[in-house]
Write a structure and sequence with these properties.
The protein is α/β, with parallel strands linked by helices. It is built from 15 helices and 14 strands. An eight-stranded mixed β-sheet has the order 5-4-3-2-1-6-8-7, with helices on both faces. The longest helix is centred in the last third of the chain and has 25 residues. The mean pLDDT is about 95. The structure holds adenosine-5'-diphosphate. The site of adenosine-5'-diphosphate (ADP) has 13 residues, from helix 10 and helix 12.
Amino acid sequence: MKILVVNCGSSSLKYQLIDMADESVIAKGLCERIGIEGSKLTHQPAGKDKFVAENPMPDHKVAIQMVMDALQDKEHGVIASTDEISAIGHRVLHGGTTYSESIVVNEDVKKVIRDCFDLGPLHNPANLMGIEACEATMPGKPNVAVWDTGFGMAMPEKAYMYAIPHEYYDKYGLRRYGFHGTSHMFVSGEAIKFGGLDPKSAKVIVCHLGNGASISASIGGKCVDTSMGLTPLEGLIMGTRSGDVDPAVVQYICNKEGKDVNEVLNILNKKSGVLGMSGGVSSDFRDIEAAKKDGNHLAEVALDAFIYRVAKYIGAYTAAMNGVDAIAFTAGVGENDKASRKAICQYLGYLGVKIDDAANDVRGVNAVISSADSKVKVMLIPTNEELAIARETKRLTE
Ligand code: ADP
């Protein structure tokens, strides 16, 4: 069974064709600058040379057609015809309060994706375009929506309600949703398997630390709390996002700088985080670490604050669950940066967390990085959102 996984942004489309027999990636690629001049497809078939095509892609439908052509091409193709593709799995950002579980797309599902355009203004329209492009290009094939907000829907009311007038929840569904759900679901599940934990009761904290960063607490794979909120802006300090701030900061900057709310929100989303804190060094954690090594004080503070915020959340989530069995690190920083992992865990001595330096000297593979006498199992679990989407698609269409 071969499954195509599609992740559409407003001007991009990432794809992977996965053979579910052994969960291997047969081909993957990226369409960039859809609807903009200079469109480009980069197609990487497994074991063959990369192929780049620079043809105009006015919309996602043309992009999907180019992907289909690349997949079936005589030279760099990997399938004889689209008949070999059993189903298509789509990353969809927002399912609102309607959907927590992945679902085979029908007209009702598309209506919900549309109804949630306000909640996911950049992603939901693109996700819907991707689904409709696949429906047009491969009629009759099942499309499955896997929601980035799905995992967070299991949060109890005390975790997802904001302490603001209730009418806004009733009128607009204004609540905490959480994002990176597919990653948190995948990594918490893999951590339970890899760590040999009880799948029904394991208390797991997943630290998804990349350019976008979020943290979740789950018991037996069900989300108890997660750090992103109505939008991905809440929670941890990220590459360019501020994470938690006093909302009065917005009003203060508006008044002092003569800006409107949208401009300040743009600053909090795109110019803050370690980029903003470091005085503009970079949003890339490798650059921040290099600047810190060169003696840049602001870069040092940015990195310290990033680590401190993660440690604070781990403490909060341990309290939320009345304990923690395992902490799993994932995504760009979590998978590659042993120094950050260690620095975070140094705050956690009171929980009986002990890191084994030799075991922590690892990147990009499943690993236990805590010592044998650590009270909490600390792990590195590489995330794989495409595989998680493919597994969900298989489960629902087999
Ligand atoms: P996203 O998917 O949110 O764009 P990723 O999960 O790919 O982000 O993570 C990207 C981040 O990971 C970048 O900021 C990059 O600097 C960081 N990163 C990658 N490798 C390392 C490393 N060895 N040390 C520190 N940070 C790293």
